[in-house]
Amino acid sequence: MADNSQRRIAFIGAGNMARSIISGLVSNGYPADRIIAANPSQPKLDALAADFAIQSTNDNLLACQQADVIVLGVKPQLMAQVCEPLSALDLSGKLVLSIAAGVTCDSLQRYLKQAISLVRTMPNTPSLLGLGMTGLYAEASVAEADRAFAGQLMAAVGEIIWLAQESDIDQVIACAGSSPAYFFLFMEAMQQAAVKMGVTTEDARAMIQQAAIGAAAMAKQNPQWSLAELRTQVTSKGGTTAKAIETFEQQDLRASVDDAMNAAVKRAQEMAKQF
Ligand SMILES: NC(=O)C1=CN([C@@H]2O[C@H](COP(=O)(O)OP(=O)(O)OC[C@H]3O[C@@H](n4cnc5c(N)ncnc54)[C@H](OP(=O)(O)O)[C@@H]3O)[C@@H](O)[C@H]2O)C=CC1
Ligand SMILES: O=C(O)[C@@H]1CCC=N1
């Protein structure tokens, strides 16, 4: 087994999430010539090779043969089909990381037809900027060196959290894997409202995204304050923010968020039964 900085990593499936992780890794100094991406469509591979100087191939088997670490980055519904040919390989000595939602460790071991050193992860797309959040779950049989590598790999693209049980992955999906999309939806709705008021699309976006960055940074840099306290600091009694917050509360934004996050968990659980 190569030492950690030299481990060869094969990404099987080079879509949005794989690209985010590859970008974060290369920006963080992981040697590009130790990374290979396998994907059916050539334009994605060409773009990855051009942007990050990594290796690429259309041949999943070839990529896995050469790798110490295999990152399974295809859609959940394709996972069985993609793993089938890989099951012909002897995967002992290799670490397999899955980033797929709703595909359990049991299913992956079954698809690959052998006991593997397997870590399930749930990253998110801000990994692209080194601002990712990843939950990781390793079965008890995974060696300490493999756990450490999986942790280092995902820590290179953001923060990580180790999970005690596999089902916790579904909560990470609701809180972090899917949640960038909730924030985009909220920002999108704010932008639409601003444009209706007569603000240009560009100005609205500039103001909203900067406020979002500022709010997230304030939350992160002030753990001594609860999120409710941070909100209260913006909210003058009888003022403008109070009126806006009152409107959200009257329309039960909290219930919508609760329903949405539980729907994400429920869908992950359904997928785990399906795949
Ligand atoms: N997007 C996100 O925010 C997150 C996604 N995930 C997980 O990441 C995984 C990928 O999602 P995402 O990146 O969004 O999806 P994408 O569709 O962007 O990426 C999937 C990639 O797999 C490729 N692919 C299809 N068939 C094969 C095959 N036979 N062999 C190799 N590659 C293949 C696709 O290629 P082509 O397009 O050329 O067909 C595509 O590039 C999913 O399992 C998802 O649950 C996890 C956390 C967050
Ligand atoms: O939507 C999905 O299923 C994936 C998992 C988390 C984010 N995207």
From TrEMBL:
Keyword Repeat annotated: no
Alphabetized UniProt keyword annotations: Amino-acid biosynthesis, Cytoplasm, NADP, Oxidoreductase, Proline biosynthesis
Catalytic reaction annotation: L-proline + NAD(+) = (S)-1-pyrroline-5-carboxylate + NADH + 2 H(+); L-proline + NADP(+) = (S)-1-pyrroline-5-carboxylate + NADPH + 2 H(+)
EC number from the UniProt entry: 1.5.1.2
Record-linked Pfam families: F420_oxidored (PF03807), P5CR_dimer (PF14748)
InterPro entries: 6-PGluconate_DH-like_C_sf, NAD(P)-bd_dom_sf, P5C_Rdtase_cat_N, P5CR-like_CS, P5CR_dimer, Pyrroline-COOH_reductase
Protein family according to the UniProt entry: Belongs to the pyrroline-5-carboxylate reductase family.
Annotated protein name in UniProt: Pyrroline-5-carboxylate reductase
